[in-house]
Amino acid sequence: MACSLAELCVCAAAEAFRGEGETMVTSIGLVPRLAASLAKSTFAPGLMMTEGEAYLVSEPVPVGPRGDYRPKIEGLMTYERVFDIIYRGMRHAMVTPVQVDRYGQMNISVIGDYARPKAALLGVRGYPGNTVNNANSMFVPSHDRRTFVAGEVDMVAGAGYNPARWPGGRKPEFLDLRRIVSNLAVMDFQGAGNAIRVISLHPGVTFEEVQDNTGFALEQTGGLGETAAPTARQLGVLDRLDPHNLRATVFKGNPPGRRAE
Amino acid sequence: MIDKTCSIRDIATGIESGMTLGIGGWGGRRKPMAFVRELLQTPATDLTLLSFGGPDVGMLAAAGKVRKLVFGFVSMDLVPLEAHFRAARQAGAFEVMELDEGMFQLGLKAAAARLPFLPTRVGFGSDVLTTNPEIKTVKSPYGDEELVAVPALPVDVAICHVNQADTLGNSRISGPDPFFDEWFCRAAGKAFLTTEEVVPTDAFDDPLTALQMPIERNLVHGVALARHGAHPTSCAPAYGIDVDHLRHYSAAAKGGWPGYRAQYVDGLDLEGYVEAVGGAARIEALPLPVF
Fold it and tell me: What is the predicted pLDDT for the residue at B79?
């Protein structure tokens, strides 16, 4: 089906949750939230998610102003319990870091020197705990060398596949980076030594373009194909999950999923 | 008969320079802001703050009162970046101990249990350990695994804002999430509550209400009435985040802080502040945030 780039990304990001059973999803930002909601509404009904604050809900809450809609509560998930579920590992987080490096290390703390940063951002938040305890995926809306940096990220908030930073050189037992969806391609961590590997290209994008916009060498799967377009059913579900069409605001000008030649 | 009532000014004037403060709430939600504004008007400085930070951190940093900040983030939720915190952090105005949110909680829990540390895997692989070289690791006595020993994070004084309290120090948080307020209180030498409402004890005489009461009264040293005292942060279910005010406050980070505090802080009691931000009816009409 013809779709927007945002819709393509939502559907590709939803695939990160395929095969998850009763895993709690924490999805930060509009595309991750819609991705988790789409997965739960279609092929991963066992997923647990919240209304964005403190309650687990039995059906994904549509994004944006709710009108008469009332979240359908099925349980409690205060921040304190979020930590408990992280430590038990029964969670998959999808976040948007400001920087990512070849190891999958993520940064949302500071840009530049740590003591006198050029830009102070949020702080490490829960990234250190998330990454050593449960599955993590990413949505990156601007695939460029400022985001996918050469060397290491300025401040390692999320742990990655970098043995030099592991205690005794031993991989943290529950470190599990899964998938990165960007505006250009879909990647995983199944390259040599968990290297980042392109597994599909968004329609009209070449591997060379993705590589040129990445600060480190990427691997690719053999017979690299196109990111799957959403089905009519998926787009219909998205209309219900995003009734105000907020997804049209993800990318400037709301470009189509298949880039014009 | 125990009577712990006091004023927000009493709590603020009890804060001495060099103290370590734990501030309850989370980002843009249920912050004891009326207390923070009183503290801005005292000479206390050189403070160490522990906070799941919001405008509490930003205002105290803007006023130059912070020597050290222990934090996992500073954000105002619907206004994600805290401009005053950013400006001070970028200027290197205070020391930082930047921790994962869960490590922060473990540090409070260690202090609460009077333990020197609690073990975790959190921190490995990240710069939380390299930027905080004082955080040590320990070897499991039951195997060979190396674990991070999160140090206890005791505070001299904790301040939290609640929906209801009685004069004994019993209290109720009726919003959906109590955050980590109880752990700040348990980790504190002295804990104080500011409250939307002071109620008779029998207002709590209900089993479901009791589930919203995470802070025991014997943790509490003082209770101060502060109606609308979380503004401009939210206090669910009574009122939401004042996004317009927070944007106005954020804009003041570009040289406008003296004007902001002259308009909303200096010489104003809580009643005067409420009038300055548009009145009680306006605050009570602020919609609860939708995340």
Answer: 92
Measure in Å the smallest separation between the Cα of B141 and chain A Cα atoms.
17
In this complex, is the C-beta atom of B51 within 8 Å of any C-beta atom belonging to chain A? no
CB B277 within 8 A of CB B245: yes
ipTM of the complex: 0.96
**Contacts of A35 by beta carbon, 8 Å cutoff, 6+ apart:** A9, A10, A11, A13, A14, A16, A17, A27, A94, A139, A181
Given CB atoms, is B143 within the 8 Å cutoff of chain A? no
User: Is B147:A172 a contact under the CB 8 Å cutoff?
Assistant: no
Neighbour order of strands in the sheet with A73-76? A49-50, A55-57, A73-76
Sort out which chain B residues have CB atoms less than 8 A from A114's CB and list them.
127, 131
The CA–CA distances, whole Å, from B197 to A58, B203, B235 equal 34, 11, 12
Q: Do B91 and A116 touch (CB under 8 A)?
A: yes
CA A105, CA A127: separation in Å to the nearest integer? 10
pLDDT for B1 equals 86
Q: 3-class DSSP state for residue A30? A: helix
- pLDDT at residue number B176: 96
Residue by residue, DSSP assigns A44-57 as: -TT-BEESSSSEEE
Contact state of B180 with A80 under an 8 Å Cβ cutoff: yes
When pLDDT is averaged across residues B185-193 and rounded to a whole number, the result is 98
Q: Are A122 and B180 in contact (CB < 8 Å)?
A: no
What confidence tens digit (pLDDT) does each residue in A152-200 have? 999 999 999 999 999 999 999 999 999 999 999 999 999 999 999 999 9
**In 10 A of CB B18, how many CB atoms?**
12
CB contact at 8 A, A25 and A85: no
Alpha-carbon span A7 to B21, nearest angstrom: 46
Task: Please name the residues between 200 and 219 in chain B that touch chain A, using a CB distance below 8 Å.
Answer: none
pLDDT in tens, A201-227: 999 999 999 999 999 999 999 999 999
Averaged pLDDT of chain B: 98
* Bridge partner list, B162: B195
3-state secondary structure of A189: coil
Taking the CA of residue B9 and the nearest CA in chain A, the distance in Å comes to 31
Question: Whole-model pTM above 0.95?
Answer: yes
> How close, in Å, is residue B191 to chain A by CA atoms?
20
